[in-house]
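Dear all,

This email documents one entry for the complex benchmark we are building for the journal club exercise. For each entry we list the sequence lines for every component of the assembly. Then comes the predicted three-dimensional structure of the complex as a token string, followed by one or two observations. Please use this as the template for your own entries, and keep the labels exactly as they appear.
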Amino acid sequence: MAMQSGVASSALATALEEVEQRYRDRNAESWALLERASAVMPGGNTRSSLWSDPFPLYFVSGEGCRLKDADGHSYVDLLGEFTAGIFGHSSAVLKDAVSAAHANGINLSSHNTYEVRLAELLTARFPSMDLLRFCNSGTEANLMAVALAKIATSRERVVVFEKGYHGGLLTFGAASAKVNAPHKFEILPYDDVDAARALFAAKGAEIACVLVEPMQGAGGCRVGSRAFLAALRDLTAESGAVLIFDEVQTARMGEGGLQKRLGIIPDLTTIGKFFGGGLGFGCFGGRRGLMERLDPRRPDAISHAGTFNNNTLTMAAGIAAAEHYLTAEKLDALFDRGEALRSRLEALFADRKAPYTVTGLGSIMNIHGAAADHGDSARLLKLAHFALAERGYYFASRGLIALSLAVGDTEIDGFLNAMAAFLDESAAVFSSVDRSA
Ligand SMILES: Cc1ncc(COP(=O)(O)O)c(C=O)c1O
């Protein structure tokens, strides 16, 4: 389905056609698998964000920072499961933790010791989390946090931001919201202090909560300014609304997440992804006074059920992940490695005068095409995506890179060399593209 607008420069269109044809030729087995899947899943897809035109790759295995696809190609995995795969693939530590939990019985039909340990580890690291509860996904964590805020404040309005992504039912990008949970959303521009102030001035007494990513992940790795996040902290505190930081992605920015790095402490925090040690996971936590509303000993307790909330396999994997991988030292080193990669990419684009930019923070970043025409920008990104895949480097078709701990200097140098070769080879194509101002 054509999603792009505008008239492509003919050199860009031709280059894209050629690289796309080579992609089709190289990936016949992935195409055949999609055809097979399409008989039993709509469009062969069960996770919308994985779709990419003309068809996504099917992978058969991963080890460390390497992936192998169905056609036998090997890739350096620079996507790291959209940030969830921070450990790299086939970690023996995680495998042993899950195996030991599995050998000990599945889920045990009651409270278990794993959940206590994981809750202790997580509340100890996030400044905002006095108490927490587990669930099964980041989406669910955000849905629960918003519900809790609405009940606790007896207010209805939920403030979110353009291009925000808090899960499949809380999506505020361009092409999204039909399946969203039916809250009274106020959708504000991101990183716009004046817009937030104006809304609070007009409707502050009706606002239950503000749900915000300190850096928008799926929205293109846009980093919220300190001033913006601090203003949200002040506005919510003054008006009695609940500030919710969605740190499902940004929790990797340091041991206590981005909140600790910034020194801005929300009322509630949601996390997910890597804290499940590679298994499905979500968690919301925050101020004691708020979270205590979920205490089942209270006559007015808010119910929050879920068969797999405390499943022993995820809890055990989460403990191993927190203890062995998500340590302050490793997360700080990963942050620095990401910062270094992003500035080297920026320098490469600037040196070559290539029509690309890169945004992000720490180990999460997004490459963007930078043409005057939106359609050309999308084509430029697609060109880079195919060209780098051809050279053995895999990142998301939307330009997302999320480094895992398994990606080393060799892979980063290799990626930058491959990018430089692609940029050099495409210089004539780029010179035909109308640049953004
Ligand atoms: C910031 C953010 N919040 C929430 C979610 C939803 O998490 P899940 O996919 O586990 O439901 C995601 C997933 O990408 C995310 O990036």
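Observations: The chain has a mean pLDDT of 96. Residues 38 and 236 are 46 Å apart (CA to CA).
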